[in-house]
């Protein structure tokens, strides 16, 4: 009886043994196989890496101090400047430059493209201005005209003199900038500026996608901070790239000229025509705003003479009028 | 209303007066033709260029939504526009007039032809005439070599242009050239455009007092104005034709607005003097207090 009982048990054991060994075998084969595959893949990728490494493929790169160097292709990394880089280079400015802007009032017809381009670049609301076109009238019997008014970037800036925390400063290329990271929002500079060029951020910055991850750029004032000051920056970030400011390029009427005083040349943002700065100022009777204050602005105005457009109230465009009458 | 009528009349009169001044194109420019045939690709390029450069005043072609300026810019799809020959259109875009800016420095010749090809797509009856002889160069199989030389004695730049091929070397004669100087945001045209003489020479006068770098070097560029014939043949050379300029940094002088290190001497002295006086006074008070304390100590000792 006991033998009878044992036999099927033995049989079962044998079956079990056979079954488990098959399973084990398959398991082992799977393990070894996948290990071999991974190993081969690793070996192959390593081989490829080594092959590429020794391929000698190089690329020519221009260094910051203007040297052309050759480096292996695989060592090229995308460069993203950090806050420290922005702050350092933003404080120093561009060597050997003296930026200057000329605004030809005879051509301005309040298209407001400069204002829009500026607000777009600096993430401002429609009622926040770094540049604005004003309606001007000197006295009752003189004509009205439009005047775009950015920051004058004075060579003797009263706003910088009064800043108690060194948040606003002047650079070697003439641009007056603000560090929103330092600004305490005391608004001394606002009251010191005779041109009312500065604005206070009463609200949280306009939420623009991607701003949260963005590193604060002192040359763009984006993303700025609530309770601090900002103003026109002469698009310092663009000048670093060799492109004219946002407002200058956006004007459809050829109002703005921009250039380097050291080169005695300014380029029109619309027509891209380059002219001698000294000749342009001389031939057109240029002037600066409130020269009696001794602030020495870097923005020149050409008088609104020989205007070829009719003065219209802001908001009343030529197009609208034509179609309403 | 009373004011409106004379105003409107004035505008109308002014408008008609201005538009009555015909925009005459020199006869030799009227017949100018594109060197390439207009196709969908040129029209597409032209449309992009139109949107970027012309739309702000001329509006969308065929929509009649141009800006109401005096004189009116007009709709490029209109009959008045399309009556212009290709050469006339080209000339007007290049030269500009009044409020219409010159696009000489903005668009290249081929870009302007692309623009015209786009505008012609609004003209059903238009049949393009392509320039018969399409050559990339007026001197086929030859390389155009340009040499520049600076004469400091009379502040002029001499340019010679020769077309060098395997067989021969001939002077490029009667070709209009323009001399330019590189500036930060564009090229400053120097002197008027001039034609090369029979020997392929042309002389330009450099303006006085044009700033160069610290050594007076400037990058001078010589170009043929007729891009269709000569392509982009040109020569860029650094010449010592400018005025050496030594402009110090704008933050170099001592000033109230400058950094603490660059503050005016009188401010530094006044400030330091003020600090010294204040601390000196505090020290004096402390010393006097010490004296009083010592006197008090002595008197209590004596009293005992």
Spell out the key features of this protein.
heterodimer; A: 325 residues; alpha+beta; Alpha-Beta Plaits; two-stranded antiparallel sheet; 9 helices; 13 strands; 33% helix; 17% strand; elongated; disordered N terminus; disordered C terminus; B: 304 residues; Cytochrome Bc1 Complex, Chain D, domain 2; Immunoglobulin-like; four-stranded antiparallel beta sheet; 8 strands; 36% helix
Tell me what the structure shows.
The complex is a heterodimer of chains A (325) and B (304). Chain A has 325 residues and is α+β, with helices and mostly antiparallel strands. Chain A has one domain (83-318): 2-Layer Sandwich (Alpha-Beta Plaits). Chain A is built from 9 helices and 13 strands. Chain A has helices spanning 2-53, 83-92, 113-121, 158-162, 188-192, 236-240, 246-250, 277-284, 318-324; strands spanning 58-62, 68-72, 99-104, 132-137, 144-149, 168-170, 176-178, 199-200, 229-230, 256-260, 265-268, 274-276, 299-302. In chain A, strands 12-11-10-3-13 form a 5-stranded mixed beta sheet. A two-stranded antiparallel ribbon of chain A has the order 1-2. In chain A, a hairpin with a 5-residue loop joins strand 1 and strand 2 (68-72). The longest helix of chain A is centred in the N-terminal third of the chain and has 52 residues, at 2-53. Chain B has 304 residues and is α+β, with helices and mostly antiparallel strands. Among the domains of chain B are: 13-120, Orthogonal Bundle (Cytochrome Bc1 Complex, Chain D, domain 2); 143-239, Immunoglobulin-like (Sandwich), CATH 2.60.40.1940. Helix content of chain B is 36%, strand content 18%. In chain B, the strands form 2 sheets. In chain B, strands 1, 2, 3 and 6 form a 4-stranded antiparallel beta sheet that branches. A 4-stranded antiparallel beta sheet of chain B has the order 5-4-7-8, with no helix packed on it. In chain B, helix 3 crosses helix 7 (109-120). The longest helix of chain B has 39 residues, at 265-303. The radius of gyration of chain B is 35 Å and the shape is elongated. Mean pLDDT of chain B is 84; it is low at 12-20. The interface between A and B is large, with 49 and 39 residues.
């Amino acid at each position: 009886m006991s033998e009878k009982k044992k036999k099927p048990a033995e049989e079962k054991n044998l079956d079990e043994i056979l079954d488990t060994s098959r399973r084990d075998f398959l398991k082992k084969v799977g393990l070894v196989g996948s290990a071999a595959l991974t190993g081969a893949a690793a070996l192959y990728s390593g081989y490829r890496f080594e092959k590429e490494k020794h391929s000698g493929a190089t690329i020519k790169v221009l260094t910051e101090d203007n040297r052309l160097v050759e480096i292996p292709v695989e060592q090229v990394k995308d460069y993203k400047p950090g806050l420290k880089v922005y702050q350092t280079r933003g404080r120093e400015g561009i060597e050997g430059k003296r930026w200057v802007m000329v605004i030809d009032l005879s051509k301005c017809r309040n298209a407001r493209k400069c204002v829009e381009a500026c607000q777009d670049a600096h993430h401002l609301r429609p009622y926040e201005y770094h540049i604005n076109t004003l309606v001007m009238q000197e006295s009752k019997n003189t004509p009205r005209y439009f005047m775009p008014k950015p920051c004058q970037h004075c060579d003797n800036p009263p706003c910088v003199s009064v800043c108690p925390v060194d948040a606003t400063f002047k650079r070697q290329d003439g641009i007056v900038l603000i560090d929103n990271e330092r600004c305490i929002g005391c608004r001394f500079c606002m009251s010191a500026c005779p041109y009312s060029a500065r604005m206070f951020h009463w609200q949280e910055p306009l939420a623009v996608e991607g701003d949260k991850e963005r590193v604060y750029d002192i040359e763009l004032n984006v993303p700025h901070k609530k309770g601090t000051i900002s103003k026109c920056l002469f698009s310092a970030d663009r000048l670093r790239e060799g492109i004219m400011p946002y407002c200058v390029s956006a004007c459809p009427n050829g109002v703005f000229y921009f250039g380097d005083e050291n080169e005695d040349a300014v380029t029109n943002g619309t027509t891209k025509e380059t002219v001698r700065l000294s000749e342009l100022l001389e031939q057109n009777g240029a002037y600066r705003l409130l020269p009696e204050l001794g602030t020495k602005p870097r923005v020149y105005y050409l008088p609104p003479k020989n205007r070829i457009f009719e003065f219209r109230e802001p908001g009343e465009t030529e197009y609208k009028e034509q179609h309403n009458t | 209303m009373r004011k409106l009528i004379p105003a409107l009349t004035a505008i109308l009169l002014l408008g008609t007066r201005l538009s009555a001044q015909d925009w005459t194109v020199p006869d030799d420019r009227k017949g100018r033709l594109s060197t390439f045939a207009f196709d969908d690709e040129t029209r597409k390029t032209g449309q992009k260029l139109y949107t970027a450069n012309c739309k702000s005043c001329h509006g969308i072609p065929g929509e009649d939504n141009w800006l109401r300026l005096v004189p009116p810019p007009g709709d490029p799809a209109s009959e008045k526009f399309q009556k212009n020959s290709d050469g006339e259109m080209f000339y007007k875009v290049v030269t500009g007039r009044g409020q219409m800016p010159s696009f000489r420095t903005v668009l290249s010749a081929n870009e302007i032809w692309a623009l015209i090809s786009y505008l012609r797509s609004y003209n059903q009856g238009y049949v393009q005439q392509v320039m018969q002889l399409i050559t990339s160069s007026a001197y086929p199989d030859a390389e155009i070599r340009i040499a520049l030389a600076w004469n400091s004695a009379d502040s002029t730049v001499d340019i010679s242009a020769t077309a060098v091929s395997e067989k021969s070397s001939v002077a490029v004669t009667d070709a209009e050239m323009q001399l330019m100087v590189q500036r930060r945001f564009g090229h400053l045209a120097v002197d008027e455009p001039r034609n090369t003489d029979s020997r392929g020479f042309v002389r330009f006068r450099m303006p006085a007092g044009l700033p160069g770098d610290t050594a007076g070097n400037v990058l001078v560029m010589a170009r043929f104005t007729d891009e269709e014939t000569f392509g982009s043949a040109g020569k860029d050379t650094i010449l010592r034709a400018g005025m050496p300029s030594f402009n110090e940094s704008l933050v170099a002088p001592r000033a109230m607005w400058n950094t603490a290190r660059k503050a005016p001497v009188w401010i530094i002295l006044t400030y330091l003097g003020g600090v010294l006086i204040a601390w000196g006074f505090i020290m004096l008070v402390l010393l006097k207090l010490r004296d009083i304390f010592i006197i008090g100590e002595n008197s209590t000792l004596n009293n005992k």
